[in-house]
Amino acid sequence: MNIQNYINGGFHNPIQNNWIDNYDPSNGDVYGQIPNSCKEDVENAYIAAKSAFPNWSQTTLEERSRILLKISELIETKLDKLATAESQDNGKPISLAKAIDIPRASSNFRFFGNAITQFASESHESIGLNAINYTLRQPIGVVGCISPWNLPLYLFTWKIAPALAAGNCVIAKPSEVTPMTAYMLGDICNEAGLPKGVLNIVHGLGTTTGQAIIEHPDIKAISFTGGTATGAHIAKTAAPMFKKLSLELGGKNPNIIFADCDYNEMLNTTVRSSFANQGQICLCGSRIFVEQSIYETFKKDFVEKVKQLHVGHPSESTTNIGALVSKPHLEKVKNYIDIAKAEGGTVLCGGNEVTIEGYENGYYLEPTVIEVSTDECRVNQEEIFGPVVTIMPFKTEDEVLQMANKVQYGLSATLWTNDLKRTMRMSNHIQAGIVWVNTWLMRDLRTPFGGMKASGVGREGGFEALRFFTEPKNVCIKY
Ligand code: TXE
Q1: I need a labelling partner for 192 at 20 to 30 A (CA). Which of 175, 297, 403, 430 fits?
Q2: Is residue 144 lining ligand 1, measured as CB closer than 6 Å?
């Protein structure tokens, strides 16, 4: 099936008629083509967005909210169709797409549709000077949203919803690897009555279509989620034009397990935080540090549980681990397993490709646990972004804190302990934008979301996102 760009409320082929193959990761087949949009396509999207902006930015909050809630509701009604498309495009188990990806896409619109009606700005009375200051929070204009392939509609809408709620018009580009549900969103927006040109979705490679968005002098803000190297390139390109930037980048998150934790809950959650979505979530806990006294027990129990995970076709209800997103990504992940072996790591389970009858060319890999003897090895430092975790023991709180922080990333961390004082100490000192204690990936959409160090700049979520997508203007009135 071929997909098209969604510009000014209509569907269009790319101007230069360039197309990219779209692969089904479950069997390696090409099952459609997507536009590789050029500068002119992006310019058309820009013209549509620019002319929609005066009306959209003046639309009442009640009306904006009503349309966003309608989009949310339509996503919910089309759950099965969207989940099926997401699973085929990405390789993730359909059960996951149904339980997490699509419901969250719906929540993103519902959340920001409601949040905008509660968004407020400040006023400052300059006492003794007979003056009052108030802050206007005005939409920026035309903004760009660029998202990755791991949680396609989930992350796409996480950017678009607040941008629209705040009154901006949007040019959005999903990952070229997983464009399908973003394409389907166009129809949903039309059905919900979103005025034409308010949201424009262009498809294509990062280096052509993405590049045209970030280079466009009049797209004044870019919200990006993806790899750290791409984030650095975007920052370099956008800085001389003084664009506002929100960058959500990679992670190499520590999962720190103390002996005093609730063991069974920790064990079950650790299986999930290691391998959910084939380990392709920037928040996965890919470095597991276990207190020495329970290390051998944990190692045995964890490996036993991981071996029970069923690698299978994404459409089967019994599948725990589906296909990796693409052939190049599978090769990258496999290469890291080789690196681990060359570095002296011990593969405790997994490590091999899996062949599934009838789907022999799919990109399947066993969930892999690697025991490492030093936290400084490459597999413990570099983002693998696949079903591969490392484990190693630690003796003291200080030691594990040092190891946890000794990476270039700082996105999230998980702590397992029932010691309150330790929780407070560790949470204060861990270099990460999010610390989960005795849980993982529990999300409240009001909270700030993002990372420090090489994991990014800025925060999404709640009012932080609405602040990002607005320009604060101070008005000072003397009376
Ligand atoms: O991401 P890219 P890739 C990590 C993960 C993965 C690595 C590379 O480690 O292995 O990044 O993945 C668009 N101008 N994460 O190469 O290239 C691109 O088209 C503008 C972590 O797939 O960063 C896509 O829409 N846009 C991450 C988006 O950027 C450009 C999730 C992300 O793709 C562009 C995904 C350019 N010059 C990968 N080049 C997370 N934080 O969750 C690319 N793009």
Answers
A1: 175
A2: no
What token pair was written down for 245?
């930037």
Q: Which residue has 């990006």 as its token pair? A: 224
Tokens, residue 37: 């949009």
CATH number of the domain enclosing 190: 3.40.605.10
Q: Based on the residue annotation, tell me whether 40 is a catalytic residue of this protein.
A: no
**Nearest to 219, CA basis, from 282, 257, 172, 152:** 172
Amino acid at 99: A
CB 259 within 8 A of CB 302: no
Q: Is the CB of 176 under 6 A from ligand 1?
A: yes
Looking at residue 310, the DSSP 8-state letter turns out to be: P
Tokens of residue 132, six digits: 């009052």
Q: Are residues 348 and 393 in the same domain?
A: yes
CA dist., res. 122 & res. 346, Å (int):
56
Judge contact between 303 and 346, C-beta under 8 A: no
| CA–centroid distance, residue 248 to ligand 1 (Å) | 10
Structural domain that includes position 13: 5-249+455-478
Question: Which residue, among 98, 111, 42, has the nearest Cα to 463 in the 3D structure?
Answer: 111
Q: Give the CATH number of the domain where residue 304 resides.
A: 3.40.309.10
List the beta bridge partners of residue 126.
131
Question: Mean pLDDT for each 10-residue chunk of the chain (479 residues)?
Answer: 96 98 98 98 98 98 98 98 98 98 98 98 97 98 98 98 98 98 98 98 98 98 98 98 98 98 98 98 98 98 98 98 98 98 97 98 98 97 98 98 98 98 98 98 98 98 98 98
Rg (CA), the chain: 23
Number of separate domains in the chain: 2
The ligand 1 atom at the shortest distance from the C-alpha of residue 174 is 25
Two tokens at 4?
């098209």
Q: How far apart are CA 269 and CA 214, in angstroms?
A: 38
**Sequence-ordered strand ranges (E) for 322-469:** 346-349, 368-371, 388-394, 409-410, 412-416, 434-437, 452-453, 456-457
Identify whether residues 90 and 227 lie together within a single domain.
yes
- 225 ligand 1 Cβ < 6 A: yes
Q: State the distance between the two ends of the chain, measured CA to CA, in whole angstroms.
A: 64
Q: Are residues 311 and 271 part of one domain?
A: yes
